[in-house]
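Table S7 (text form). Paired inputs.
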Amino acid sequence: GEHVIMAEPIVTVSTVAACLEAGYSDGRGINAKFNDPMGLDFTRNGEILVADYSNHCIRKVVLASTSSAYVETFAGTTGQSGYRDGDASQALFNYPSSVTVSSDGTVYVADSHNYRIRKIDGLKVVSTLAGSGQSVVIDGKGQLASFCSPQDITLSKGNNAGGFYVSDGGHCIRHVTDDGTVSTVA
């Protein structure tokens, strides 16, 4: 007779950073603390950027091995919510919910309670790419556009390459081009 052999992959789950209690602390492995880590993405160097939602900042996880990591603040002023562009260490976010990293290393942030899409360039300068700061759905370019509450963000792929997509709390999906032009697609 015929036999079917099924191979099941072995999956190992390891905690590489934080996990024991909410808070804020840079450091190694489980000594680091997050407060509602949300969306994450990999940098070109294999580090992980995390939207640390309730700490109002973007954190970087440097993987030392599959079971150990070092966590540091990448952008934002920990524990301070607000809105301020400029040097990453002085910038303010208000509940950042997601990040995505482009092929050139530019980081885009869904800054949900500032109702904006923020950009962090290679020199670690934070700027506003799109969004007026008003919680309403309006298509347009730069600060003429508005978001209800941007939640998740992902780079465009395939035939739609260029820019990225944002799930907006206004019950819609938005496309944002590299120059900050926002359009509602669904």
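Next pair, protein 2 of 2.
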Amino acid sequence: MGEAMKGEFTDADTDLRQEFESAREEVRNRNSEEYNVQKIQREGIIEELERHFEQAHKAYLEGTEHRTASFKSLTKSDAAAAKVIEQRMKKLMKLQEDLQHWRTKIGTTSREWEERNAALRKEKELMSKHYAQLKAALDAGRAAAAERLKQLSVVSSSAMQVRLVGIIGFTEIHTSHCASR
């Protein structure tokens, strides 16, 4: 009995395994067919998309041919403009360097001239003081000379009066002496 049950159980197991294998094979075949159908559909879609892509690409190239030519022309003019800009930038840099040089030189020269002007102002002040001293001395000398001249004139006038008195006295004496003779 145990063996009979075991035999039945083994037969049932074998039947179930065969059913399972046939169902699995059936599912596998169905999946394989669906895969192939979808693969064919997708390949068709891909081919259709490639045709559309090629047409769109061709239309794009035709439509952008003029823009490409414009772009190339603009690229050339841009390169020329960039070259001009670069030359002008170099010229501008040179001018800025020259400007800085001249500003520095002006600053240096300005300091030198300020120093010279300060020295000249100082010398002018010294000369003005010296001139004032000389003028004061000259004015004092003139005043002294004028005073001496005045005194000389007074003395001279006095001397002339004395001499005149002496001459008058002499002439009177001489006239009286000559008259008495």
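The chain is about 100% helix and 0% strand.
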